[in-house]
Amino acid sequence: MKKFDPDTHRLHGVSIFFFTFKFVKDLLYPLLAVVISTIVRGEINLLWIIGGVLILVTGSAVLGWLSWLRFTYRISDDILHVHHGLFIRKKLYIHRERVQSFDMSAGVLHRIFGLWKVQIETAGGTKPEVVLSAISTEESVRLREALYKSGRRDQDEPSVTSEDLQSAEHDTFGPGEAASVNDLSTNNERAQNTKQQASVEPLPSIRIPLRTLLLYSITSGRVGIAIAVIGAAYSQIDDWLTESFDIWNFVMNSLGAASLVWVAAALLLAVWLFSAIMTTLREYGFTLQADNGKLTTYKGLLERKQASISLKRVQGFYFKENAIRRLLGYASVHVYIAGTTEKYEQSFLLFPMIRKSELPGLLEQFLPAYQLPQQINKLTLRSLPSFLTVPVVTAVVITAAAVIWIPDGYGLITIALPLIALLWGWLRYRQTGWSVDEDMLTIRHGSFSTHHSIIPKHRVQWHTLATTPFQRRKKLGTLSLAIASGAVFVQLKLRHLPWAHGAKLMNWLRRGSSSANGQGHTRMG
Amino acid sequence: MVLQDPQQRIDEDALKAWRLGGWISAAVYAVIIGIMVFLTIRFDWPYWIAGTALLIAVLVALFEIAYIPVWRWRRFRYDVSEHEIDLLHGLFIRKRTIIPMVKIQHVDTKQGPLLRKYQLATVTFSTAAGSHEIPALLESKAEQVRNQIAQLARITDEEI
User: Which of A20, A88, A468, B153 could be B104's S-S partner, Cβ–Cβ 3.0 to 4.6 Å?
Assistant: First the structure.
């Protein structure tokens, strides 16, 4: 090994464990294959198995240690140099300007030692270019300053990474009833005071109170809805059957169906509780901070996560209200973000749950370029058949088949299907809408939940107006907009809108037509 | 409000290339049907399996050779202007797609063996949200369109 440069750093020693773990994981399947083959052959030799496991673990530990030894990084002239690789030595250089995201997370083991896992991404590729499996908090702050702080590089900037996450944790144990917006910037005031820097505007920041997060957790996912439906249906049936029919009870008991229903309900309840708890742990202490063209979120109780996006890469945002949250007046907000691979999600969660009435104020602070639609244009009855035909016909066919072929009248249960299809189609018809506000296009769609996407015109990658033969007969069309989102893209669709409106939107979306010269392409009619 | 269709057509030789493609798939179907007939005779399979397959294959081949190329050729129109690429495409679903020039990240021409036989090439251009193509232009025309798009897309350096 060459002489050690003082600027060259190694990961924290705990990384040895992570490297080792990775080797163990990679070798686990071959080992299992060997073990199973010995068992199958009936030659179970405990000594061999224990010996094999021991060799595997010690071997991996040695390899893990060597990997750690080989993994070095340093920063010079705004370039991060990473040297790593056990058998194949790899050298990686990333310039500060190419860094697209700098995300930090800390699992339980990290937390014990006060460490962070850092993932650095550039625009290309589908996975993080650099993963530093464990570095100290100070080191992560240093790297973040050197590689990610945008524009101004004054050292006085409040370092949000360590302190605020610490304090964020304690705050939540206080009274959780504060309205979320009023929580604003408590973190930053503290950061500011410690740095005694009154001249800098406090960075906009918001914490989602625990109470709201709990509400978010219990209302998230379809399991909750399923339980609500089953619960409501069952209580109805129960009332009805105890009142009127003893036969029903007899049938249920003879089939053991009653207990089956209870077991199923209990199972669903357990799944729902489990997912609610996991969601709460994951989103605990959710904090969003805006910092000079970047948005950073901090969250997590056991595993802490910090993720940043650059406003420059935001393609638009959407807010979604599922049926229950809509009743309570809450929505969750995501942004479409280009070229990020953040946990392979397509969008970046901005606010897990906020009151809809707070949305305009929050947008002003965190996404100042965006605004909410003034008024949503809705479809006319002309479009309704197009929404109903396919689902209802499909459902009727299934029901007919079920009634004919399922014996003993159980097929009759499926009679609900066409009704549900009808409701679904009707809701989709009702939810579809759009709005044009200056350079923003809002698209609303959904069925049981509502989904508003707000996209600036210049972020649309391409747009299509499609017509099926059926739509042509009724002068309808489906407009879709392609938005870069994650490593792939999403298509936002306005289904079955009047063709003339679609054409108008197509023309509105065109470049060069906004400057009113129209290029001879468009003609107002 | 009027949405004027794009005007340019793709090369008429596209029909020949696509039809040839149709004949090649027909040949593949014929081989498959042949194997099925052999199996039917050899292992006493019921006749309706091979019969149905034959019927489907004949229909599909008929469409692939006689109808789809013509429909496709008739439907497809394009225009390349300073600000956008304008496409009209789709068989049963008629699609009008507009791609702003500033969103185009790169542009290519490609040519399979069938297109090469008729000196045709396809221009493909990609955005951050997938790619589109103008199929089967004459080689020289394809090159010209590609260069034109490359030229126009280069001017602006907008963010994604």
Answer: B153
Interface size between A and B, measured as CB pairs under 8 A: 99
Chain A CA closest to residue B101: A511
Q: Give a yes or no: residue B59 inside a domain.
A: yes
pLDDT tens readout for residues A456-474: 999 999 999 999 999 999 9
Mutation target among B1, B5, B103, B106 for the A interface, most CBs of A within 10 A: B1
Point out the domain boundary residue: B25, B40, B73: B73
pLDDT for residue B159 is more than 70: no
**A259 touching B, CB under 8 A?**
no
Between A384-405 and A416-431, two packed helices, what is the crossing angle to 10 degrees?
170
The alpha carbon of residue A100 and the mean position of all alpha carbons in its chain are separated, in whole angstroms, by 18
The answer to whether the Cβ–Cβ distance between B130 and A489 falls below 8 Å is yes
Please name the residues in contact with B115: beta carbons below 8 A apart, sequence gap of 6 or more.
B17, B121, B122, B136
The pLDDT > 70 percentage for chain A reads: 76
Structural domain containing residue B108: 77-155
Same domain, B37 and B92: no
Residues B17, B60: one domain?
yes
Same-domain pairing of B82 and B63: no
Whether residue A484 contacts residue A339, with contact meaning beta carbons closer than 8 Å, is answered with yes
pLDDT tens-digit profile of B69-105? 999 999 999 999 999 999 999 999 999 999 999 899 8
- Inter-chain touch A484–B127, beta carbons under 8 Å: yes
Q: B53 lies in a domain?
A: yes
CATH number at residue B106: 2.30.29.210
CA A483 to chain B, closest CA, distance in angstroms equals 6
Given B52, B73, B94, which residue is the final one in a domain?
A: B73
Q: Given CB atoms, is A473 within the 8 Å cutoff of chain B?
A: no
Q: Are B35 and B63 within one domain?
A: yes
Number of domains in chain B: 2
Beta strands in A323-383 (DSSP E): 330-337, 347-355, 377-378
| A476 interface with B at CB cutoff 8 Å | no
Integer CA distances (angstroms), B129 to A315, A481, A488, A491, B133, in order: 12, 10, 6, 9, 14
pLDDT tens-digit map of A16-70: 999 999 888 888 888 788 777 777 777 667 787 788 788 888 999 999 999 999 9
Identify whether the C-beta of residue A286 lies closer than 8 Å to the C-beta of residue A297: yes
Q: Are B85 and B97 in the same domain?
A: yes
Contact B97 A460 (CB under 8 A): no
What's the length of chain B? Answer: 160
Residue A516 has pLDDT above 80, yes or no: no
Residues of chain B above pLDDT 90, percent: 76
